[in-house]
Amino acid sequence: MPRRPWYRDLYVQVLVAIALGIFTGHFFPKAGIALKPLGDGFIALIKMMIGPVIFCVLVQGIGSMTDMKKVGRVGLKTLVYFEIVSVSALLIGMVVAQAGQPGRGLNINPAALDAKSVAAYVSHAKDTGLAGQLLRTIPATFLDAFIHDDFLQVVLLAILCGFAISRLGESSAGVTRAVGVASKVCFGIIRMIVQLAPIGAFGAMAFTVGRYDLAALSNLAKLIGTFYLTSALFVLLILGTIAYLAGFSLLRFLAYIKDELLIVLGTSSSETVIPDMLRKLERLGAPSSIAGLVFPMGYSFNTDGANIYITLAVLFLAQATNVHLSLGQEVRVLLFAMIASTGGAGVPGGAFVKVAAVLSVFPEIPVQALALLLGVDKFMSECRALTNVIGNGVATLVVSRWEGELDVAKMREVMGGK
């Protein structure tokens, strides 16, 4: 069978689109800003299918199970794993912030900052927390979860429907098959939409570079570099070790999902690849029931990139405004960041909301200092999204291995390109 030409590979097309987007945004900023609808349109197309895909995959998996205790067991293992890894992400953010001191020497006067620019994020901060997150998992109506793109609400509905189908007796098999057919239809639509990824990446990157003046970011370049370095250390050291213990190579896994990572990089959104990541994780040997539960849950409980950002940003703002935090205060930052890290799902500017929630407990650090981050947040959102996708992909394979349902031989074969 002849090899497909290199220019037809999706990741090559996305790479070219990103490069063209950077060129257009830098040299023709007005044109770049005008291209924003291309990126927004692609994300909207993907988002419209996320809810149905998660719902169908999870309902089919649970409906076909005979042991209902398994769902609770998998859910508990998933939350324990998420908590351990999330704390690791928060800690590495603090350690690197202390070692690198990215905010030292800026000597920012908080009174000179625009407090109104961050008012919207601060107003959302009071809703960030475990209790608020749990209440938000309950939709107002059955269709409300699909309308507002809330992952956990869709997961809750899918679990309830899956349990109900499993109790139908002999007729459950027919319903499960029907849901399976609907799932195939959804994935077929996704495959068509994903072909538009280069166009979406081109528009999103052109807008980002055209909208924000790269030269004006030089004062905060150290923060951006520190965040990218910290995220890379977390992925290679923490997630790499976890992957090794689970019996697979992280680097091979990254190569396997390179198309999805490039789409995330181009669109600055981890949501755009949820359906395709579910399909690829199942191809690696992860059961659809576990993949459909663990991966979507990670978007609320395992946002590793955002967790690194929370502690790094808080300590950066303290350093930039010359606020000295004692060891006891830093421990409090960690504790409150652990609470805030579970919130923000479905909230615009979720990472900003989490940082604002932590700052609200520490009046020593002026909350208007958040305005410092507004200009560079877009350039760090790509890194947050990439880290989140990688972390949730690894989590899905690890939990599947814990359950003894991961086909390790198949996983290694697929990762090896066979």
Task: Tell me what you see in this structure.
- The protein is mostly helical and 418 residues long.
- It has one domain (6-415): Sodium:dicarboxylate symporter (Proton glutamate symport protein, Orthogonal Bundle), CATH 1.10.3860.10.
- It is built from 20 helices and no strands.
- It has helices at 10-27, 29-34, 36-63, 69-100, 119-125, 130-136, 144-147, 151-166, 172-194, 197-211, 221-246, 250-256, 258-267, 274-283, 288-301, 304-320, 327-340, 350-359, 371-402, 408-415.
- Helix 1 (10-27) runs parallel beside helix 10, helix 3 runs antiparallel to helix 9 and helix 4 (69-100) packs across helix 19 (371-402).
- The longest helix has 32 residues, at 69-100.
- The relative contact order is 0.19.
Indicate how many domains the architecture comprises. 1
Kindly state the percentage of residues in helix: over 70%
Query: Helical element count?
Result: 20
What's the total count of β strands?
A: 0
Which fold name is given in CATH as the topology? Proton glutamate symport protein
CATH architecture: Orthogonal Bundle
Strand content: under 5%
Average pLDDT, to the nearest integer? Answer: 80
Q: How are helices and strands ordered from N to C?
A: HHHHHHHHHHHHHHHHHHHH
- Determine the N-to-C terminus distance: 14 Å
Biggest sheet layout: none
Name of the CATH class: Mainly Alpha
Structural class: mainly alpha
Q: What is the name of the CATH superfamily? A: Sodium:dicarboxylate symporter
Rg on CA atoms, Å: 22 Å
Shape descriptor reads globular
Low-confidence spans: 344-348
